[in-house]
Amino acid sequence: MSPSTISTIINFVKNQKLMSPIKYFTAWFAAVFLLSPSSKVAAQEIVKNISLSEAIAAALNDNKEIHLAGIDQNIAAINFKKTNAIFLPQVSLSYTGIRTNDPLNSFGFKLEQRTITQNDFNPVLLNNPNATSNYMTRLEVQQPLLNIDMLYQRMGAKKQIEAYQYKTQRTKEYLTFEVQNAYLQLQLAYDALKVVEEALQTAKSIYVFTDNHFKQGLIQKSDLLNAQVHITSVESSQAKAQSGIKNASDYLGLLMGKPAGTIYKPGGGLQTGPTAVDTSRYIYPERSDFMAIQKAIEASNLMVKSSQMSYLPRINAFGNYQYNDSRVTGFGANSYFFGVQVSWNIFIGNKTKNAIAAQKSERDKLVTQLAQQKEQSQSDLDKAYRDLSDATFEIKQGKEAIEQATESLRILQNRYKQGLVNTTDVLMAETQLSQLKFSLAQAQFSSNVSRAYIQFLTATANK
Asked: How many other CB atoms are there within 10 angstroms of residue 366's CB atom?
C-alpha cells in the first residue's frame, strides 16, 4: 500500500473526532437558525412531510460523500486487479524496418534472413558491404513464474480493499449521525416557532385587555406601550424562527443531496429521534473506522514482508518468435528462442533496507494512531453519557419549572385583571414561561443528540 493510500485512510479516521454534539449543535442552531436574517425564497414555497427514516435513506442514496467513498473502494478493487499481472503472461507484437551498411549488422541481417551465399564471405564485401535492409516481425512473451515479493504486494492490495470497505461503512454511519442531528435541528426549529406563536397569542390577549383598560382610563399609557413593544419583539422572534425552519430544511436537503428551497416538516414530536442507547459504556474494537486502520496496519505488514522478499531471486520465463526478410511484406525466414531467467538483486545501495525501515515506521505510526483514536473515542463516549445525564435532569427540572411558571402567569393575569399588579409583571412572567419552554425543547434536543452520538460511537462493523 502506498503512503498516500494510508494517509487517505488516516485522514478519514481523524475526521471522526467530533466535538461535543450538545455544545456544537445548540450553538450552531442559535447562531445560524435563530439569529440569521430571513433568506430569500420563491413566491411559491414547497412544504414536504418527511420522516427520519426517509431522510436517512435519501442521504445514503444520494449524498456525495457516499459516492466518493464508493469511488475510492472501486479504485482499490481495480488496483487489486492490476496485481493479476504476477500470474498472467505479457505479450507484445512489433514490426521493425532497418537499413544499414554496418559490416556486422549487414552480415547478421542476411543470416537472420537465411540468404547467405558463398560470395558473402568475400573479405572485400565483408569489410565494405552494400546497404542491407531488414524487416522483422516479432512476437514476444514473458511469463512470471515465481516472484514472492509480488505475491505479498497482491495480498497487501487485498487488505486495501477491505480497508476502504470499512471506510465506506463508517462514512455511512457518520452520515446517518449527521442526518439525525439535522432532523433534530429541524424539529427544534419547529418547536421554537410553536413556543413563539404561543407567546404571541398570549401577548396579544394581554394587549387587548390593556388597551380596553387604557381606554377606560384605568391604566397609564406606558403600560399600553409596554404591551405594544412586547408584541413587536415576539413578532420579530417569530420571523427569525420561520427563517430557522427554512435554514434547517436547506441543511437537511443538502445532506440528502436535494436542491435548496423545499421546506421539510418532520413527523411526530421531538422524541422521534434515536431512543435506544448502548449501556455498555465502552467502545467496541470492531468499529468500522478502527477496522479500517487495522486493515491498513495489516497491509503495511505485508508491504514490509514484500520488501524483505525482494532479497530473494526471481524466476521468469521468456520467449519470442520472429520473421526476417529484406522485403517490406516478406516473411522469408522465421526463428524462435525461449528460456528461463533467474535474477537476483544482490546489492542495490541499501535501497531495500531503507525502504523496509520507512515502511516499519509507517506501520508503527498507524498502530499509535489506532490506540490514540480508541482512547479519544472512549473519552468522547464518557462525556456523551454525562451530557445525556445532564439533559435528562434538565428535562425533568424544566417540566416542573414550566408547570410552576404557568401557574404563576395565571395568578398574575388574574391579579392584573383586578388591578393588583402592573403590566410589566405580567409581561415578564409571560417571557419567563416562553424561555422555560424553549429551554425544555433545547434539553430534549440535547438528549436526542447525545443518544445519536452514543449510537455513533458504539457502532460495530458487525451490526
From this structure: 22
